[in-house]
Amino acid sequence: MEILMDADRLNAFLATDFPQVADGCSIRSVAPDKLVALLQIGDQHLRPGGTVSGPSIFALADVAIYCAILSRIGPVALAVTINASIDFMRKPAAGRNLLAECRILKLGRSLAVAEAMIFSEGSAEGVARCSMTYSIPPKRQ
Question: Which Gene3D superfamilies does its entry note (predicted)?
Answer without folding.
Answer: Hotdog Thioesterase
